[in-house]
Amino acid sequence: MNAAVESISIFEQWWQNIQPGIQANTLNFWENLYKEIYMNVIQGDRWLQYLRGLGVTLEVSFFSILVGLLLGTILAILRLPQVQNISGKGRGFLPTLGAVIVRGLSKFAGFYINIMRGTPLLLQVLIINFGIFGTVRMDKVIIGVIACGLNSAAYVAEIVRGGIMSVEKGQTEAGRSLGLSGIRTMIYIILPQAAKSALPAMCNEFISLIKETSILSYIALTELTKAGDYIRSRTYSAFTPYIVSGLLYLIVVLTLTWLIGKLERRLRNSDH
Amino acid sequence: MKKLVALLTALIMVLSCTAALAGEIVYVATNPEYPPFESVADDGMTIVGYDVDLFDAIAKKAGFEYEFEPMEFAAVVNAVATKPNTVGLSGISITEERKLSVNFSLPYINAGVAVIVKADSTIATLEDLQGKIIGVQTGTTSDFEAEKITGIDNVARYSTFQFAVNELQGNKIDAVFVDKPVGEAILAQLNDPSLVMLDLEIVADWYGIAINKNDVELQQKIDAAITELQNEGFFEELAVKYFGGGEADAE
Protein backbone atom coordinates (compact mmCIF):
# COMPACT_ATOMS: atom_id res chain seq x y z
CA MET A 1 0.00 0.00 0.00
CA ASN A 2 2.83 2.34 0.91
CA ALA A 3 4.55 1.68 -2.36
CA ALA A 4 1.33 2.47 -4.18
CA VAL A 5 0.89 5.77 -2.42
CA GLU A 6 4.48 6.65 -3.18
CA SER A 7 4.19 5.84 -6.85
CA ILE A 8 1.20 8.16 -7.06
CA SER A 9 3.05 11.02 -5.50
CA ILE A 10 5.91 10.49 -7.94
CA PHE A 11 3.45 10.57 -10.80
CA GLU A 12 1.76 13.61 -9.40
CA GLN A 13 5.10 15.38 -9.04
CA TRP A 14 6.02 14.47 -12.57
CA TRP A 15 2.63 15.67 -13.72
CA GLN A 16 3.00 18.94 -11.92
CA ASN A 17 6.45 19.39 -13.39
CA ILE A 18 5.10 19.31 -16.91
CA GLN A 19 2.00 21.28 -16.08
CA PRO A 20 3.35 24.85 -16.08
CA GLY A 21 4.09 24.62 -19.79
CA ILE A 22 0.51 23.70 -20.58
CA GLN A 23 -2.01 26.29 -21.69
CA ALA A 24 -5.70 25.56 -21.70
CA ASN A 25 -7.04 24.35 -25.06
CA THR A 26 -3.57 24.07 -26.52
CA LEU A 27 -2.68 20.62 -25.19
CA ASN A 28 -0.75 18.62 -27.72
CA PHE A 29 -1.24 14.90 -28.10
CA TRP A 30 1.23 13.85 -25.41
CA GLU A 31 0.11 16.46 -22.91
CA ASN A 32 -3.45 15.34 -23.50
CA LEU A 33 -2.45 11.74 -22.97
CA TYR A 34 -0.77 12.59 -19.67
CA LYS A 35 -3.84 14.49 -18.58
CA GLU A 36 -6.20 11.68 -19.54
CA ILE A 37 -4.12 9.03 -17.82
CA TYR A 38 -3.77 11.15 -14.73
CA MET A 39 -7.49 11.82 -14.56
CA ASN A 40 -8.66 8.31 -15.35
CA VAL A 41 -6.06 6.13 -13.70
CA ILE A 42 -4.02 7.95 -11.06
CA GLN A 43 -6.30 10.55 -9.52
CA GLY A 44 -8.21 9.38 -6.45
CA ASP A 45 -6.60 5.92 -6.68
CA ARG A 46 -8.84 5.12 -9.65
CA TRP A 47 -6.51 2.30 -10.75
CA LEU A 48 -7.81 0.39 -7.74
CA GLN A 49 -11.28 0.42 -9.33
CA TYR A 50 -9.94 -1.25 -12.48
CA LEU A 51 -8.07 -3.86 -10.43
CA ARG A 52 -11.13 -4.65 -8.35
CA GLY A 53 -13.17 -4.93 -11.52
CA LEU A 54 -10.52 -7.22 -12.96
CA GLY A 55 -10.71 -9.34 -9.81
CA VAL A 56 -14.47 -9.75 -10.18
CA THR A 57 -14.10 -10.57 -13.89
CA LEU A 58 -11.50 -13.25 -13.11
CA GLU A 59 -13.60 -14.68 -10.30
CA VAL A 60 -16.73 -14.93 -12.43
CA SER A 61 -14.79 -16.28 -15.42
CA PHE A 62 -13.00 -18.96 -13.40
CA PHE A 63 -16.11 -20.37 -11.77
CA SER A 64 -18.14 -20.06 -14.99
CA ILE A 65 -15.48 -22.09 -16.80
CA LEU A 66 -15.67 -24.75 -14.08
CA VAL A 67 -19.47 -24.92 -14.24
CA GLY A 68 -19.35 -24.91 -18.04
CA LEU A 69 -16.78 -27.71 -18.21
CA LEU A 70 -18.57 -29.96 -15.74
CA LEU A 71 -22.07 -29.49 -17.08
CA GLY A 72 -20.84 -29.35 -20.68
CA THR A 73 -19.08 -32.72 -20.39
CA ILE A 74 -22.19 -34.35 -18.95
CA LEU A 75 -24.29 -32.86 -21.76
CA ALA A 76 -21.76 -34.02 -24.34
CA ILE A 77 -21.87 -37.60 -23.09
CA LEU A 78 -25.66 -37.54 -23.09
CA ARG A 79 -25.57 -36.41 -26.70
CA LEU A 80 -23.35 -39.28 -27.92
CA PRO A 81 -25.06 -41.60 -30.45
CA GLN A 82 -24.48 -44.71 -28.31
CA VAL A 83 -26.19 -42.98 -25.35
CA GLN A 84 -28.98 -41.46 -27.45
CA ASN A 85 -29.98 -44.90 -28.74
CA ILE A 86 -29.37 -46.81 -25.51
CA SER A 87 -31.71 -49.72 -25.02
CA GLY A 88 -32.26 -51.89 -21.99
CA LYS A 89 -34.53 -54.31 -23.75
CA GLY A 90 -34.46 -57.90 -22.58
CA ARG A 91 -32.42 -57.09 -19.48
CA GLY A 92 -35.20 -56.79 -16.95
CA PHE A 93 -37.32 -53.98 -15.63
CA LEU A 94 -34.70 -51.66 -14.02
CA PRO A 95 -32.29 -51.46 -16.97
CA THR A 96 -35.23 -50.79 -19.27
CA LEU A 97 -36.46 -47.98 -17.02
CA GLY A 98 -32.90 -46.60 -16.76
CA ALA A 99 -32.55 -46.60 -20.51
CA VAL A 100 -35.82 -44.71 -20.89
CA ILE A 101 -34.62 -42.07 -18.39
CA VAL A 102 -31.26 -41.71 -20.11
CA ARG A 103 -32.94 -41.33 -23.51
CA GLY A 104 -35.17 -38.64 -22.01
CA LEU A 105 -32.17 -36.84 -20.53
CA SER A 106 -30.44 -37.04 -23.90
CA LYS A 107 -33.42 -35.41 -25.58
CA PHE A 108 -33.40 -32.73 -22.91
CA ALA A 109 -29.66 -32.13 -23.43
CA GLY A 110 -30.27 -31.48 -27.12
CA PHE A 111 -33.12 -29.12 -26.29
CA TYR A 112 -31.01 -27.32 -23.68
CA ILE A 113 -28.09 -26.83 -26.07
CA ASN A 114 -30.40 -25.44 -28.75
CA ILE A 115 -32.02 -22.98 -26.36
CA MET A 116 -28.75 -21.77 -24.83
CA ARG A 117 -26.97 -21.38 -28.16
CA GLY A 118 -30.01 -19.94 -29.87
CA THR A 119 -30.62 -16.96 -27.57
CA PRO A 120 -28.32 -14.06 -26.69
CA LEU A 121 -26.38 -14.28 -23.43
CA LEU A 122 -27.57 -10.79 -22.51
CA LEU A 123 -31.18 -11.99 -22.58
CA GLN A 124 -30.30 -15.04 -20.51
CA VAL A 125 -28.55 -12.87 -17.93
CA LEU A 126 -31.54 -10.52 -17.71
CA ILE A 127 -33.99 -13.44 -17.44
CA ILE A 128 -31.94 -15.16 -14.75
CA ASN A 129 -31.42 -11.96 -12.74
CA PHE A 130 -34.80 -10.27 -13.07
CA GLY A 131 -36.93 -13.37 -13.65
CA ILE A 132 -35.70 -16.59 -12.12
CA PHE A 133 -33.85 -14.95 -9.23
CA GLY A 134 -36.06 -11.87 -9.38
CA THR A 135 -36.80 -11.92 -5.66
CA VAL A 136 -33.76 -13.78 -4.34
CA ARG A 137 -31.15 -11.57 -2.74
CA MET A 138 -27.76 -13.11 -3.48
CA ASP A 139 -24.28 -12.08 -4.50
CA LYS A 140 -24.30 -10.83 -8.10
CA VAL A 141 -21.12 -12.87 -8.67
CA ILE A 142 -23.14 -16.07 -8.09
CA ILE A 143 -25.84 -14.96 -10.51
CA GLY A 144 -23.10 -14.17 -13.02
CA VAL A 145 -21.50 -17.59 -12.59
CA ILE A 146 -24.88 -19.31 -13.00
CA ALA A 147 -25.76 -17.34 -16.14
CA CYS A 148 -22.36 -17.55 -17.83
CA GLY A 149 -21.74 -21.12 -16.69
CA LEU A 150 -25.08 -22.40 -18.01
CA ASN A 151 -24.51 -20.59 -21.30
CA SER A 152 -20.94 -21.80 -21.70
CA ALA A 153 -21.96 -25.40 -20.94
CA ALA A 154 -23.92 -25.54 -24.20
CA TYR A 155 -20.88 -24.55 -26.26
CA VAL A 156 -18.52 -26.74 -24.23
CA ALA A 157 -20.88 -29.68 -24.77
CA GLU A 158 -20.52 -29.46 -28.54
CA ILE A 159 -16.74 -29.04 -28.29
CA VAL A 160 -16.40 -32.06 -25.99
CA ARG A 161 -18.74 -34.11 -28.19
CA GLY A 162 -16.59 -33.28 -31.19
CA GLY A 163 -13.52 -34.32 -29.20
CA ILE A 164 -15.04 -37.61 -28.10
CA MET A 165 -16.18 -38.45 -31.62
CA SER A 166 -12.70 -37.76 -32.95
CA VAL A 167 -11.33 -40.62 -30.82
CA GLU A 168 -11.22 -43.80 -32.89
CA LYS A 169 -13.85 -46.43 -32.22
CA GLY A 170 -11.03 -48.93 -31.71
CA GLN A 171 -10.11 -47.21 -28.44
CA THR A 172 -13.52 -47.98 -26.95
CA GLU A 173 -13.34 -51.54 -28.20
CA ALA A 174 -9.87 -51.94 -26.71
CA GLY A 175 -11.04 -50.60 -23.35
CA ARG A 176 -14.09 -52.85 -23.27
CA SER A 177 -12.11 -55.93 -24.32
CA LEU A 178 -9.73 -55.22 -21.44
CA GLY A 179 -12.71 -55.68 -19.15
CA LEU A 180 -13.42 -52.00 -18.32
CA SER A 181 -17.05 -50.96 -18.00
CA GLY A 182 -18.53 -48.49 -20.48
CA ILE A 183 -18.29 -45.63 -17.97
CA ARG A 184 -14.72 -46.44 -16.98
CA THR A 185 -13.68 -46.69 -20.63
CA MET A 186 -15.15 -43.23 -21.15
CA ILE A 187 -13.41 -41.69 -18.13
CA TYR A 188 -9.98 -43.34 -18.38
CA ILE A 189 -9.51 -43.89 -22.10
CA ILE A 190 -11.79 -41.74 -24.23
CA LEU A 191 -12.07 -38.43 -22.35
CA PRO A 192 -8.30 -37.83 -21.90
CA GLN A 193 -7.77 -38.27 -25.63
CA ALA A 194 -10.85 -36.20 -26.42
CA ALA A 195 -9.60 -33.39 -24.18
CA LYS A 196 -6.39 -33.16 -26.17
CA SER A 197 -8.04 -32.76 -29.55
CA ALA A 198 -10.69 -30.41 -28.11
CA LEU A 199 -8.16 -28.12 -26.45
CA PRO A 200 -7.80 -25.45 -29.19
CA ALA A 201 -11.56 -25.09 -29.54
CA MET A 202 -11.90 -25.06 -25.75
CA CYS A 203 -9.34 -22.26 -25.48
CA ASN A 204 -11.48 -20.30 -27.93
CA GLU A 205 -14.55 -20.85 -25.76
CA PHE A 206 -12.75 -19.74 -22.58
CA ILE A 207 -11.60 -16.54 -24.28
CA SER A 208 -15.13 -15.81 -25.46
CA LEU A 209 -16.48 -16.47 -22.00
CA ILE A 210 -14.02 -14.12 -20.28
CA LYS A 211 -15.01 -11.30 -22.62
CA GLU A 212 -18.71 -12.11 -22.43
CA THR A 213 -18.73 -11.63 -18.66
CA SER A 214 -18.74 -7.92 -19.54
CA ILE A 215 -22.47 -8.38 -20.15
CA LEU A 216 -22.89 -8.78 -16.38
CA SER A 217 -22.42 -5.02 -16.03
CA TYR A 218 -26.12 -4.90 -16.97
CA ILE A 219 -27.08 -6.42 -13.63
CA ALA A 220 -24.95 -3.95 -11.66
CA LEU A 221 -22.03 -6.31 -11.15
CA THR A 222 -18.96 -4.08 -11.01
CA GLU A 223 -16.65 -6.15 -13.19
CA LEU A 224 -13.98 -4.77 -15.48
CA THR A 225 -16.25 -3.18 -18.09
CA LYS A 226 -18.47 -1.62 -15.44
CA ALA A 227 -15.38 -0.31 -13.65
CA GLY A 228 -14.41 1.54 -16.83
CA ASP A 229 -17.98 2.74 -17.20
CA TYR A 230 -17.98 3.97 -13.61
CA ILE A 231 -14.81 5.98 -14.11
CA ARG A 232 -16.15 7.41 -17.38
CA SER A 233 -19.23 8.61 -15.51
CA ARG A 234 -16.96 10.43 -13.03
CA THR A 235 -14.34 11.91 -15.35
CA TYR A 236 -16.48 12.33 -18.50
CA SER A 237 -13.62 10.91 -20.55
CA ALA A 238 -15.21 8.90 -23.32
CA PHE A 239 -12.11 6.98 -24.32
CA THR A 240 -9.38 6.37 -21.77
CA PRO A 241 -11.30 4.33 -19.15
CA TYR A 242 -12.48 1.86 -21.79
CA ILE A 243 -8.98 1.60 -23.25
CA VAL A 244 -7.59 0.76 -19.81
CA SER A 245 -10.30 -1.88 -19.28
CA GLY A 246 -9.61 -3.22 -22.76
CA LEU A 247 -5.89 -3.53 -22.09
CA LEU A 248 -6.57 -5.49 -18.91
CA TYR A 249 -8.86 -7.90 -20.80
CA LEU A 250 -6.13 -8.28 -23.40
CA ILE A 251 -3.54 -9.11 -20.75
CA VAL A 252 -5.80 -11.79 -19.25
CA VAL A 253 -6.65 -13.34 -22.62
CA LEU A 254 -3.04 -13.32 -23.84
CA THR A 255 -1.89 -14.96 -20.60
CA LEU A 256 -4.54 -17.65 -20.96
CA THR A 257 -3.62 -18.24 -24.60
CA TRP A 258 0.03 -18.59 -23.65
CA LEU A 259 -0.75 -21.05 -20.84
CA ILE A 260 -2.98 -23.20 -23.02
CA GLY A 261 -0.38 -23.10 -25.80
CA LYS A 262 2.17 -24.48 -23.35
CA LEU A 263 -0.24 -27.19 -22.24
CA GLU A 264 -0.90 -28.12 -25.86
CA ARG A 265 2.82 -28.50 -26.56
CA ARG A 266 3.23 -30.73 -23.54
CA LEU A 267 0.31 -32.91 -24.56
CA ARG A 268 1.73 -33.19 -28.08
CA ASN A 269 4.86 -34.86 -26.64
CA SER A 270 2.79 -38.00 -26.04
CA ASP A 271 1.97 -38.23 -29.76
CA HIS A 272 5.30 -39.89 -30.54
CA MET B 1 -28.35 58.88 -43.74
CA LYS B 2 -27.41 59.50 -40.11
CA LYS B 3 -30.74 61.11 -39.49
CA LEU B 4 -32.52 58.14 -40.96
CA VAL B 5 -30.64 55.75 -38.71
CA ALA B 6 -31.38 57.90 -35.67
CA LEU B 7 -35.04 58.06 -36.62
CA LEU B 8 -35.24 54.32 -37.09
CA THR B 9 -33.48 53.71 -33.79
CA ALA B 10 -35.84 56.04 -32.02
CA LEU B 11 -38.80 54.34 -33.64
CA ILE B 12 -37.58 50.91 -32.58
CA MET B 13 -36.98 52.12 -29.06
CA VAL B 14 -40.43 53.61 -28.81
CA LEU B 15 -42.01 50.49 -30.22
CA SER B 16 -40.14 48.16 -27.93
CA CYS B 17 -40.88 50.39 -24.95
CA THR B 18 -44.59 50.38 -25.61
CA ALA B 19 -44.54 46.64 -26.02
CA ALA B 20 -42.76 46.22 -22.73
CA LEU B 21 -44.95 48.75 -20.95
CA ALA B 22 -48.19 47.32 -22.19
CA GLY B 23 -46.90 43.85 -21.31
CA GLU B 24 -48.52 42.53 -24.42
CA ILE B 25 -46.22 39.66 -25.25
CA VAL B 26 -43.79 37.90 -22.99
CA TYR B 27 -41.20 35.85 -24.80
CA VAL B 28 -40.62 32.43 -23.28
CA ALA B 29 -37.18 30.97 -23.87
CA THR B 30 -37.36 27.19 -23.58
CA ASN B 31 -35.62 24.02 -24.60
CA PRO B 32 -38.52 21.72 -25.51
CA GLU B 33 -36.55 18.49 -25.16
CA TYR B 34 -37.22 17.71 -21.53
CA PRO B 35 -40.39 15.74 -21.01
CA PRO B 36 -42.54 15.78 -18.99
CA PHE B 37 -41.67 19.44 -18.38
CA GLU B 38 -41.56 20.64 -21.96
CA SER B 39 -41.49 18.77 -25.22
CA VAL B 40 -42.74 19.14 -28.75
CA ALA B 41 -46.07 17.41 -29.32
CA ASP B 42 -46.64 14.83 -32.03
CA ASP B 43 -47.62 17.52 -34.53
CA GLY B 44 -44.01 18.74 -34.42
CA MET B 45 -44.99 22.32 -33.57
CA THR B 46 -46.89 22.72 -30.31
CA ILE B 47 -44.86 22.79 -27.14
CA VAL B 48 -46.53 20.91 -24.32
CA GLY B 49 -45.73 19.78 -20.81
CA TYR B 50 -45.85 20.58 -17.12
CA ASP B 51 -44.08 23.92 -17.48
CA VAL B 52 -46.31 24.94 -20.38
CA ASP B 53 -49.53 24.23 -18.48
CA LEU B 54 -48.15 26.08 -15.49
CA PHE B 55 -47.09 29.13 -17.49
CA ASP B 56 -50.38 29.20 -19.35
CA ALA B 57 -52.19 29.39 -16.02
CA ILE B 58 -49.80 32.09 -14.79
CA ALA B 59 -50.28 34.15 -17.96
CA LYS B 60 -54.05 33.94 -17.61
CA LYS B 61 -53.89 35.08 -13.99
CA ALA B 62 -51.43 37.89 -14.70
CA GLY B 63 -53.14 38.88 -17.93
CA PHE B 64 -50.41 38.75 -20.53
CA GLU B 65 -49.84 36.97 -23.83
CA TYR B 66 -46.77 34.88 -24.44
CA GLU B 67 -44.84 33.37 -27.28
CA PHE B 68 -42.32 30.50 -27.20
CA GLU B 69 -38.77 30.83 -28.40
CA PRO B 70 -37.28 27.34 -28.61
CA MET B 71 -33.50 27.15 -28.16
CA GLU B 72 -30.69 25.11 -26.64
CA PHE B 73 -30.93 24.73 -22.88
CA ALA B 74 -27.49 26.29 -22.45
CA ALA B 75 -28.76 29.41 -24.23
CA VAL B 76 -31.93 29.87 -22.19
CA VAL B 77 -30.51 31.68 -19.16
CA ASN B 78 -28.34 33.76 -21.42
CA ALA B 79 -31.32 34.83 -23.51
CA VAL B 80 -33.23 35.88 -20.40
CA ALA B 81 -30.25 37.82 -19.08
CA THR B 82 -29.81 39.83 -22.26
CA LYS B 83 -33.36 40.32 -23.57
CA PRO B 84 -35.91 42.32 -21.61
CA ASN B 85 -39.43 40.95 -21.36
CA THR B 86 -38.16 37.42 -21.76
CA VAL B 87 -38.53 34.62 -19.26
CA GLY B 88 -36.82 31.26 -19.13
CA LEU B 89 -39.15 28.29 -18.67
CA SER B 90 -37.21 25.12 -19.11
CA GLY B 91 -37.04 23.13 -15.90
CA ILE B 92 -34.32 25.51 -14.73
CA SER B 93 -32.81 24.67 -11.35
CA ILE B 94 -32.44 27.71 -9.13
CA THR B 95 -28.72 28.07 -8.45
CA GLU B 96 -26.62 30.83 -6.90
CA GLU B 97 -24.56 30.93 -10.08
CA ARG B 98 -27.58 31.63 -12.26
CA LYS B 99 -28.92 34.16 -9.77
CA LEU B 100 -25.96 36.36 -10.69
CA SER B 101 -27.35 36.89 -14.18
CA VAL B 102 -31.13 36.46 -13.82
CA ASN B 103 -33.84 36.63 -11.18
CA PHE B 104 -36.01 33.65 -10.36
CA SER B 105 -39.71 33.37 -9.66
CA LEU B 106 -40.88 31.49 -6.59
CA PRO B 107 -39.74 27.87 -6.87
CA TYR B 108 -42.50 25.71 -8.31
CA ILE B 109 -41.31 22.11 -8.13
CA ASN B 110 -38.59 20.17 -6.36
CA ALA B 111 -36.73 17.96 -8.80
CA GLY B 112 -34.15 16.78 -6.28
CA VAL B 113 -33.13 13.21 -5.63
CA ALA B 114 -35.94 11.09 -4.24
CA VAL B 115 -35.62 7.80 -2.39
CA ILE B 116 -37.90 4.90 -3.31
CA VAL B 117 -38.12 2.08 -0.77
CA LYS B 118 -40.38 -0.86 -0.02
CA ALA B 119 -43.45 0.14 1.96
CA ASP B 120 -42.50 -2.31 4.73
CA SER B 121 -38.90 -1.08 4.84
CA THR B 122 -37.43 0.23 8.09
CA ILE B 123 -35.61 3.01 6.25
CA ALA B 124 -36.96 6.38 7.33
CA THR B 125 -33.97 8.69 7.62
CA LEU B 126 -30.69 9.33 5.85
CA GLU B 127 -28.80 7.53 8.64
CA ASP B 128 -30.83 4.39 7.98
CA LEU B 129 -29.49 4.35 4.43
CA GLN B 130 -25.87 4.00 5.49
CA GLY B 131 -24.46 0.67 4.36
CA LYS B 132 -27.66 -0.24 2.52
CA ILE B 133 -27.63 -1.29 -1.14
CA ILE B 134 -28.87 1.65 -3.21
CA GLY B 135 -29.80 1.20 -6.86
CA VAL B 136 -29.13 4.05 -9.28
CA GLN B 137 -28.62 4.91 -12.92
CA THR B 138 -24.89 5.18 -13.57
CA GLY B 139 -23.51 8.72 -13.65
CA THR B 140 -26.63 10.58 -12.48
CA THR B 141 -26.85 12.99 -9.55
CA SER B 142 -28.55 10.13 -7.74
CA ASP B 143 -25.45 8.00 -8.29
CA PHE B 144 -23.14 10.66 -6.82
CA GLU B 145 -25.39 11.26 -3.83
CA ALA B 146 -25.89 7.55 -3.14
CA GLU B 147 -22.14 7.02 -3.14
CA LYS B 148 -21.71 9.77 -0.55
CA ILE B 149 -24.31 8.22 1.72
CA THR B 150 -23.75 4.48 1.54
CA GLY B 151 -20.21 4.12 0.20
CA ILE B 152 -18.88 3.21 -3.22
CA ASP B 153 -19.31 -0.55 -2.87
CA ASN B 154 -22.94 -0.44 -1.80
CA VAL B 155 -24.21 1.38 -4.87
CA ALA B 156 -25.73 -0.90 -7.52
CA ARG B 157 -25.27 0.93 -10.81
CA TYR B 158 -27.61 0.06 -13.66
CA SER B 159 -27.74 1.32 -17.22
CA THR B 160 -31.26 2.62 -16.62
CA PHE B 161 -33.11 3.36 -13.40
CA GLN B 162 -35.94 1.00 -14.46
CA PHE B 163 -33.66 -1.95 -13.72
CA ALA B 164 -33.02 -0.54 -10.25
CA VAL B 165 -36.76 -0.26 -9.63
CA ASN B 166 -37.24 -3.86 -10.79
CA GLU B 167 -34.56 -5.02 -8.35
CA LEU B 168 -36.23 -3.09 -5.55
CA GLN B 169 -39.57 -4.71 -6.39
CA GLY B 170 -37.85 -8.08 -6.07
CA ASN B 171 -36.43 -6.94 -2.72
CA LYS B 172 -32.89 -7.44 -3.99
CA ILE B 173 -31.73 -3.94 -3.12
CA ASP B 174 -32.78 -1.68 -0.26
CA ALA B 175 -33.54 1.62 -2.00
CA VAL B 176 -33.55 3.41 -5.34
CA PHE B 177 -32.30 6.97 -5.81
CA VAL B 178 -33.81 8.78 -8.77
CA ASP B 179 -34.79 12.28 -9.89
CA LYS B 180 -37.96 13.15 -8.08
CA PRO B 181 -40.33 13.88 -11.00
CA VAL B 182 -39.08 10.78 -12.80
CA GLY B 183 -39.61 8.68 -9.68
CA GLU B 184 -43.11 10.05 -9.27
CA ALA B 185 -43.91 9.22 -12.88
CA ILE B 186 -42.65 5.65 -12.58
CA LEU B 187 -44.45 5.02 -9.28
CA ALA B 188 -47.68 6.29 -10.80
CA GLN B 189 -47.19 4.08 -13.82
CA LEU B 190 -46.32 0.95 -11.82
CA ASN B 191 -49.10 1.51 -9.29
CA ASP B 192 -47.30 -0.92 -6.97
CA PRO B 193 -48.51 -0.48 -3.37
CA SER B 194 -45.34 -2.14 -2.05
CA LEU B 195 -43.23 0.86 -3.16
CA VAL B 196 -43.20 4.27 -1.48
CA MET B 197 -41.24 7.43 -2.05
CA LEU B 198 -39.46 9.16 0.81
CA ASP B 199 -38.60 12.83 0.76
CA LEU B 200 -35.31 12.94 2.63
CA GLU B 201 -34.19 16.24 1.09
CA ILE B 202 -30.97 14.71 -0.14
CA VAL B 203 -30.35 17.45 -2.65
CA ALA B 204 -32.78 20.30 -2.99
CA ASP B 205 -33.16 21.04 -6.67
CA TRP B 206 -35.96 23.55 -7.06
CA TYR B 207 -37.09 24.69 -10.47
CA GLY B 208 -37.98 28.34 -11.02
CA ILE B 209 -38.89 30.61 -13.90
CA ALA B 210 -35.93 32.77 -14.90
CA ILE B 211 -36.80 36.44 -15.30
CA ASN B 212 -34.74 39.34 -16.60
CA LYS B 213 -33.34 41.44 -13.75
CA ASN B 214 -35.04 44.57 -15.12
CA ASP B 215 -38.51 43.02 -15.38
CA VAL B 216 -39.40 43.66 -11.75
CA GLU B 217 -43.05 44.21 -12.47
CA LEU B 218 -43.29 41.00 -14.49
CA GLN B 219 -41.65 39.08 -11.67
CA GLN B 220 -44.16 40.41 -9.16
CA LYS B 221 -47.01 39.38 -11.45
CA ILE B 222 -45.61 35.87 -11.92
CA ASP B 223 -44.92 35.37 -8.21
CA ALA B 224 -48.40 36.56 -7.31
CA ALA B 225 -49.88 34.16 -9.86
CA ILE B 226 -47.82 31.24 -8.53
CA THR B 227 -48.94 31.96 -4.97
CA GLU B 228 -52.53 32.18 -6.10
CA LEU B 229 -52.27 28.92 -8.08
CA GLN B 230 -50.70 27.28 -5.06
CA ASN B 231 -53.64 28.30 -2.89
CA GLU B 232 -56.09 27.02 -5.48
CA GLY B 233 -54.50 23.57 -5.49
CA PHE B 234 -53.42 23.92 -9.12
CA PHE B 235 -50.08 22.19 -8.48
CA GLU B 236 -51.85 19.10 -7.15
CA GLU B 237 -53.85 18.97 -10.39
CA LEU B 238 -50.66 19.31 -12.42
CA ALA B 239 -48.98 16.56 -10.41
CA VAL B 240 -51.92 14.26 -11.04
CA LYS B 241 -51.81 15.07 -14.74
CA TYR B 242 -48.07 14.56 -15.21
CA PHE B 243 -46.95 12.32 -12.36
CA GLY B 244 -50.17 10.48 -11.69
CA GLY B 245 -50.95 11.86 -8.26
CA GLY B 246 -47.58 12.14 -6.59
CA GLU B 247 -46.87 14.74 -3.97
CA ALA B 248 -47.05 18.31 -5.17
CA ASP B 249 -44.10 20.26 -3.96
CA ALA B 250 -44.68 23.88 -4.80
CA GLU B 251 -43.96 26.39 -2.10
Describe this structure in words.
The complex is a heterodimer of chains A (about 270) and B (about 250). Chain A contains eleven helices and no strands. Chain A has about 270 residues and is mainly α. Chain A has one domain: MetI-like fold (Orthogonal Bundle). Chain A is elongated and about 85 Å long. With about 250 residues, chain B is α/β, with parallel strands linked by helices. Chain B has two domains: about 150 residues, D-Maltodextrin-Binding Protein, domain 2 (3-Layer(aba) Sandwich), CATH 3.40.190; about 90 residues, D-Maltodextrin-Binding Protein, domain 2 (3-Layer(aba) Sandwich). Chain B is built from nine helices and 14 strands. In chain B, the strands form three sheets. In chain B, strands 1, 5, 6, 7, 8 and 14 form a six-stranded mixed β-sheet that branches. In chain B, helix 5 links the parallel strand 10 and strand 11. The C terminus of chain B is likely disordered. Chains A and B meet through helix 10 of A and strand 11 and helix 6 of B.
List the helices and strands and how they pair.
The complex is a heterodimer of chains A (272) and B (251).
Chain A: H1 2-18, H2 29-42, H3 46-78, H4 81-84, H5 93-118, H6 121-132, H7 140-166, H8 169-177, H9 182-212, H10 224-235, H11 240-268
Helix pairs in contact in A: 1-2, 2-3, 3-7, 3-10, 5-7, 6-7, 7-9, 8-9, 9-11, 10-11
Chain B: H1 2-22, E1 25-30, E2 33-34, E3 38-40, E4 47-48, H2 50-62, E5 65-70, H3 73-82, E6 86-93, H4 96-99, E7 103-104, E8 109-110, E9 113-118, E10 134-137, H5 141-150, E11 155-158, H6 161-169, E12 175-179, H7 180-190, E13 195-198, E14 206-211, H8 216-231, H9 234-243
Parallel strand pairs in B: 1-5, 1-6, 10-11, 10-12
Antiparallel strand pairs in B: 2-3, 3-4, 6-14, 7-14, 8-14, 9-12, 9-13
Helix pairs in contact in B: 2-8
